[in-house]
Protein: Peptide/nickel transport system ATP-binding protein
Amino acid sequence: MTLLQADDVAVFDASGRALVHPVSLRLDAGAPLVVLGETGSGKSLLAQALMGTLPPELWARGRVRIAEAEHDAAQPQGFRRLWGRAVAVLPQEPWLSLDPLMRARAQVAEAHALVRGLAPVAARRAAAADLAALGLGDEAGRRYPHELSGGMAQRVAFAAARAGGARIVVADEPTKGLDAARRDEVARLLTRALETGGGLLAITHDLALAQLLGGRLIVMREGAVVESGPLAEIFAAPQADYTQKLLDADPARWPRRARRAAGPSVVEGRRLTVSRGGRALVEGLDLTLRAGEIVGVSGPSGCGKSSLGDALLGLHAPACGAVRRIEGVARTAFQKLYQDPVSAFPRRRALGATLADVARRFGRRRAEVEALLARLDLAPALLARRPEQVSGGELQRLALLRVMLAEPRFLFADEPTSRLDPITQRGVIDLIATLAEEGCSVLLVSHDAALLDRTADWRMALGGHGTAEAAGRAAPAVALGAAG
Structure:
């Protein structure tokens, strides 16, 4: 049974320039459809056109058939009655979809009440059960979105979107920022609906997620379909050169980064204990970060990776112990690359204006900004847009550009490639490695074990009974608290 059929759906900007060239596809009950491609390939724009959620400066053309009714993609208001009931949309940026003034459980309960029509008590119970199934207990349910890790916020957004019981799920990068265990869990949740005749359209650049989901595959590049067919067959023998390039960019296939001699200490933590909400996440840590080295940190969502980096930066006071930073260096030389860049940019201001302020602050010329744009493969036209008008991958690269303008001596890179496709991810990691080669000390957080193995000089794992692992020099002594 066909749940969704699209015929020649295309997306255009205000000038009439095609951003997505005509695409036809079919979503059948019980069979996932995966759309794969690099950042800016048009994957999310295609999904938005299918749901009638394109931003007002863009418009679509084509026909979409959902729930036995045909809709004109050029008339997005006709899709509104389907939202939450026939189609559930899992957004790319969870913090843009969550109400910052509502606690997590209340947001999920509201969806149960307004979309499914449950009574308040039943809605709260259903919300608690949904969050528990995603590994979020009562404590997480009482938190506001800004108090959640990126992975936690992603799971809350997932629960809220699914609360209405829609038969079709459109998942736009649903596992960004999640560790492998949580990614596999979300994949199982997404496919569970297929067992009862539901449909899944997954937009992703995550090769591992695509393989977990299986089904049919569409590969996109620059707004056009370059290859389509059964996912297993394409992964085994891709016909398009671009598809092969995408598969080859998997971190597991990278060469291991050459180790270099580390320089003097830039940041030190001594007997460091870091807590959140009264719970110790990291206890008694001795840690030295040296110029020119990359230290990798892994661990499940909420285990304290971001809190540790914030403590080293001075953004979060440690519960015990001390942090020492190199003397004679401006505080602005200690920089953070946020896991969710949307939270780090003013939402109502053009990106170019924000970057121009940073460039003036550090005495950087416009030509230097333009050179960094080219180095990061970013179009200058993006500077005229606001944060919500660019893709997550583009925004993450713009965040890296902003950090590079400050010429950091220490960079806390908190999941810096969680929003990037494999090809762009490799380029960004190469740039971060270049910063290290120029003398910057880097603390790199990632859920991708292969990426850390190929990139970091040494690594440590946080969470539960995690241990510190080292490559290149002895590991520090670490005692770790339970995951938050």
The radius of gyration is 22 Å. The chain is about 30% helix and 25% strand.
